[in-house]
Each structure stands twice: as structure tokens, then as C-alpha cells.
Amino acid sequence: MPDHIHWMFELRSPSLAYVARRFKSSSALALNRLSRRQGKVWQPGFFDHALRTDEALLRHARYVVGNPIRAGMTDHIGEYKYAWCRWPL
After folding, report:
1. Would you say 1 and 67 are in contact if contact means Cβ atoms under 8 Å apart?
2. Res 40: pLDDT
3. CA dist 71 → 23, 30, 32, 65, 78 (Å)
4. Model pTM?
5. Less Cβ crowding at N or C end of the chain, within 10 Å?
6. pLDDT in tens, 69-81
7. How far is CA 58 from CA 26, 45, 63, 83, in A?
8. Nearest to residue 5, comparing CAs of 58, 59, 80?
């Protein structure tokens, strides 16, 4: 998505805040270098969901991979060039 990210992973780091901070920092540096600009890339904070069941995991995974379709950026799952999914849905 051009203005936000959906990201699913199993947390194995000290905290979600740490992972989000590192991701935002490293991606902002890279994006600013590529675009030869300076400044903020990300809004402060993030939204999260703890997925405790296989059903919740599948429901959220389907939501994430279907997001480009709902945004009108593609017509089919798997066509959005920046999407990647480990699980067959």
C-alpha cells in the first residue's frame, strides 16, 4: 500500500515497540536516501492485533492480502507487486 503497511509476524524480539521503532527508522532512512530528501516518513505510533487462534490468524492474513483489491490497486490476490505471503490462503 502506498500510504501504510500491514505486517504479520511472530514476535520474538524484546517488544513490539522495539520492532516497530527499528522498522520505521531503517525504512525511513532508506526511503529518504532513495528519494534524496529528508524528513519524517511515518506517523508516530502503530496499531496492533494479538492473534490467539488459527482462525484469527487466517482471517487477518486474508484481510492483509486482500487490501490492495479493496484499495482498487489490483483485481486479484497476488497481483500487487509489493505483497508477499508465506501461507497459502
Report:
1. yes
2. 94
3. 24, 25, 25, 11, 14
4. 0.75
5. C
6. 999 999 988 788 8
7. 29, 25, 9, 16
8. 80
